[in-house]
Amino acid sequence: MTAIEVRGLHKAYGGRKVVDGVSFEVGEGEVFGILGPNGAGKTTTVECVEGLRTPDEGRVRVCGYDPATQRAEVTRVLGVQLQQSELQAKLTVREALDLYASFHERPADRQALAERLGLVPHLRTRFGKLSGGQQQRLFIALALLGDPRVVVLDELTTGLDPRARREVWSLVESLRDTGVTVLLVTHFMEEAQRLCDRIAVLDQGRIAALDTPEGLIGRASAAKEISFAANTPIDPAALRSLPGAVSVRTAEGRTVVGGTDETVTAFVSLLAREGVTAGQLRVVDATLDDAYLDLTGTDPR
Ligand SMILES: Nc1ncnc2c1ncn2[C@@H]1O[C@H](COP(=O)(O)OP(=O)(O)OP(=O)(O)O)[C@@H](O)[C@H]1O
């Protein structure tokens, strides 16, 4: 079943189009990522899904309900991660859980949720005294209080240290295991690659690509990168003419050739033929970063 449907979504601010014909569907139980440079229209898109913005044009449905006109129904099925500033510093974790539970007709079991998210030792701690990772765990708990079928997480791990980020990732993985559908907006490639079943890359209000992480990586112009420091110079033209080679550049005394498996084999033969020794030779596979850069021409960080 389709959990989220977005079809032909358009939104402009003051005559400037920021979402320009975005369409995607998220299946039940899927973790769907939205990636894109600053200002690409990611938040505007998810805010239309949440019912916080009204589309100028297009169809948006969450579990079959229209967020613009069926707010009560959408609130029952959708959980939204709050932004940090929306909680008062003096509110304790328990008070926050009680307050947000009161917004729902049939709230989830607060104690079980607190246990699942490791919040039990912090129930009496004020929000302002929680670490960044603990605050994010509380935001996830609040998003889950209505026992939602769909959760929207927008830049969930921005500002967290690597350990806290990994902790939050495990929580999202455990959400997936319970069959909850997740719409995740992120700037982190590693996060998208690890958590998402499929990813839409948004660029200037349009979907530049929509695929699995592996599918997107396969679209990088160079599937392999050979990097080395040669003991004698190699003619760049010879490297460029290697079969499958798409790029040759030098960086910090090293030469980097982008290409395919075929390029790697031909490169090794070239070294043997020319009697060149390549020091610190490395061959690495393309990553989601490479694919993202090729698709958007911008660095994700
Ligand atoms: N209420 C608003 N009024 C006018 N312009 C807005 C409004 N909200 C967003 N914008 C503009 O619309 C564009 C898209 O913003 P949006 O927040 O959707 O992008 P984003 O992809 O989420 O960006 P970021 O990664 O920086 O959060 C930006 O140029 C932003 O300045």
From TrEMBL:
Chief location of this protein within or outside the cell: membrane
Domain of life: Bacteria
Keywords of this entry: Antibiotic resistance, ATP-binding, Cell membrane, Membrane, Nucleotide-binding, Translocase, Transport
Name of the top EC class for this enzyme: translocase
Gene3D superfamilies cross-referenced by the UniProt entry: P-loop containing nucleotide triphosphate hydrolases
Domain ABC transporter: start-end pairs: 4-229
KW Repeat (keyword) present: no
Enzyme Commission numbers on file: 7.6.2.2
GO biological process, one term: response to antibiotic
GO MF annotation terms: ABC-type xenobiotic transporter activity; ATP binding; ATP hydrolysis activity
Protein topology in the membrane: Peripheral membrane protein
GO cellular component: plasma membrane
Protein family according to the UniProt entry: Belongs to the ABC transporter superfamily. Drug exporter-1 (DrugE1) (TC 3.A.1.105) family.
PANTHER family assigned to the protein according to its UniProt record, in alphabetical order: ABC TRANSPORTER ATP-BINDING PROTEIN
Name of this chain's protein: ABC-type xenobiotic transporter
Native source species: Streptomyces nymphaeiformis
